[in-house]
Structure formats: C-alpha cells, structure tokens
From TrEMBL:
Keywords: Oxidoreductase
EC annotation from Swiss-Prot or TrEMBL: 1.-.-.-, 1.4.3.5
Top-level lineage group: Bacteria
UniProt name for this protein: Pyridoxamine 5'-phosphate oxidase family protein
Organism placement in taxonomy: Bacteria, Bacillati, Actinomycetota, Actinomycetes, Kitasatosporales
SUPFAM superfamilies attached to this UniProt entry: FMN-binding split barrel
Domain Pyridoxamine 5'-phosphate oxidase N-terminal: start-end pairs: 26-127
One example GO MF annotation: pyridoxamine phosphate oxidase activity
Amino acid sequence: MPTTEPVTELDTRYSEPGAAPAAWGEARETLAGAEVFWLTTVRPDGRPHVTPLLSVLLDDVPVFTTGARERKARNLAANPRVVLTTGTNALSHGLDITVEGTARRVQDQAALTRIAEAYTEKYGSDWTFTARDGALHHADGGAALAFEVAPDTAFGFRKGAYSQTRWRFRAR
C-alpha cells in the first residue's frame, strides 16, 4: 500500500451516533496480525470465487500466494481485481477489514525473498519457502506464485460500538 496515509472517511449511514472513524494505523495492525484471510476473485464467466488463505503485510502491502494451477491464479490471469477480507466472527467486538484492489504478481527475486521471510516469521517453519525462478518453492516440491494487492479502497467495520470507515488510496 502507499506509504502515505489514505483519505479516511466515516460513513455515518452505518455508524452509531458519535462514532469516530477507525485510524488507518489500527487497520494496518489488523492486517498485519490476522492469520486467516478471505480472497474474492472473479471467474472468467463472471461468477465470484471466494477462498480462505494466508497473507502477510510487507511494506504496508498485503501479499498472498497461490499455486499456478489453482482457481485463484486462473481467475487472476483473466481479471486481476480482488477483494481481500479479514476480521473476527464476533458481533460484539473487533474490526473487520476489506481491501478492494488489483492483484499484481511479484516476480522480483529480492521481493520474493522478503515475502518468503515474512511468511516464515508470521506462520512458522511449516511455511518456509525458497525464492527462485519468479516463484516461492516449498520443501515438499510445491511452488507458489506471489501477488500483492494494490488497494483502491479499504473498509473497516467496527463492531460493538458500530462504525464504518472508508479509506481511499491514491494510485501508486
């Protein structure tokens, strides 16, 4: 995500009276700390495809991986628009985050090495990758493509004291 702060807006239609917008810093912490995310892509025929996955935040940019033959990768080849979502299943507390944007494949060796390190640091040794040939390779022989999500808009849904925050990003 851009290193500059996004424009923050509170949507009063979906917020309790007196609610304040969530700070982008809190959203960033939520994205960095979340373990499970939901990725929505669009199939070539226009139907949505939603799947859980792991993601890391690298330089304020959400990054996820997928196998080259998986439905996600095939969908992204036809349409790179995505929604990445995380949060809690609780109704009384928490901040759910939705990031709408464009998935861009990462192939740079130095960037892939950093992504591999971030996955191991966040998820442990079961998620150790070696970066080479434009992909991340697991010890079991599997390979994954890495994608960063360049955001257009993100939403924060605060629960308990309900509020909805919108963050608008400038083009990178």
